[in-house]
Amino acid sequence: MQDTVVCPACEMENAYFDGVVFVCPDCDHKWSLDSDENPIVGEAGKYSEFDELAELKVPFFLLEHGKLYDCKIRHTQGVEESSIIPLAFKNGRNLQFIMGDARKLNQQNPRFVQEIIRMDYEYILYDGVRADYPDEYSALTYECATREDGVLIDTQNFEHFDFRRTDVL
Asked: Is the pTM of this model over 0.90?
């Protein structure tokens, strides 16, 4: 069962975390984890693992920005091989964007990939990829946080691990 979040403004129980801030669809109130307003979270009694890691001020590790890495992804369908390119990092937080299936996207249009690599965190966050590029590029751009065990975890709690840097695109 999915966690419910109680809005501190109207006290309705269907607020949600959109990956950036908490949003109440009933009263349109928005608040962040950094605010003094603490959401009340339902049955699980805590945020997702990603939400907890995102609150950290320093990442556990950094992959080199703009470089290609082969890796594995653990998700609801199991484990698969993939490739990522680390994109922008958020200063003072354990947050960064990555491009998934990066080798394939680079083969399709290397110019798009190079342009996305140059984007800053805020630009990506506020739909810079979605606004400027085909849907496939925005759909494969994920916000992640690092774990102490060398894993990147994204907003859906999918795990990216076993990173091997490669220069072959």
From this structure: no
